[in-house]
Amino acid sequence: MSGLSVADLRVTYAGRPPVEAVRGVSLSIAQGETVALLGPSGCGKSSLLSAVVGIVEPSAGAVAWDGEDLTRVPVHKRGFGLVFQDGQLFPHLTVGANIAFGLEMAGMARAARAARVEELLSLVGLAGLSGRGVTELSGGQRQRVALARSLAPGPRLLALDEPLSSLDADLRGRLAVEVRDILRSSGTTGLLVTHDPAEAEVMADRVLRMDEGLLV
Ligand code: ADP
Ligand code: MG
Fold first, then answer.
1. Which fold has domain 1-79+158-216?
2. Shortest-distance Cα residue to atom 15 of ligand 1
3. Percentage of residues in the chain with pLDDT exceeding 90?
4. Where are the domains of the chain?
5. From 211's CA, which of 30, 103, 153, 197 has a CA 20 to 30 Å away?
6. Which ligand is nearest to the CA of 160?
7. Which residues line ligand 1 (CB under 6 A)?
8. Best mutation site among 12, 16, 25, 47 for ligand 1, i.e. most ligand atoms within 8 A of its Cβ?
9. How many CA atoms lie within 13 A of 22 on its CB side?
10. Is 114 left (phi over 0), alpha (psi -120 to 50) or beta?
11. pLDDT in tens, 46-80
12. Stated pTM of the model
């Protein structure tokens, strides 16, 4: 099976009583496809996404890519990227340096890095803004930089957790279409988490509904 497969994944947070945030979810996402997880706040969407990318350890179940088990593989070795609601850019770095960050970590040479940054800037519609400080950007521009930074290393899967929720409604609608087009044109497989049905419909090829820790 090519792409992502998730088998009977469970996430339980320790506590008294423990919280069973994800109670046995199985799904697959084909290479190049974008799937949205849609459900109300607290239903376990972020916990499921976090277990898929590897920032939360599942209590049971498995995550695989192209049939290769990744359940015990650390987050930076999965080849997955992540975009959060508020971007979480490095405020003291320029746009270009934010986008180059992961490339530098991966040991890419300076000239190749600069070329890749330019490529990503034009992909997200921010050509020419490489030298700008990220604190001088609008909310929508910041989310584009976050998207570019996550896409720069060429992840095989991009996980997006409510990526547009901090933006106003008008911009949210426009960026939803743009992000979908960017995922498609870069051939990136997507896992989108959202509580907004319209956003799920626009951005995803397929929408899965989640409630109380389960797909419904
Ligand atoms: P969603 O993203 O759909 O809003 P979450 O996955 O964030 O849902 O949360 C699912 C459940 O797990 C909620 O009851 C939430 O309070 C709980 N939860 C989330 N993160 C933690 C954590 N780190 N520790 C304990 N409980 C958590
Ligand atoms: Mg969440």
1. Rossmann fold (3.40.50)
2. 42
3. 86
4. 1-79+158-216, 91-154
5. 30
6. 2
7. 13, 19, 21, 39, 41-47
8. 47
9. 27
10. alpha
11. 999 999 999 999 999 999 999 999 999 999 999 99
12. 0.94
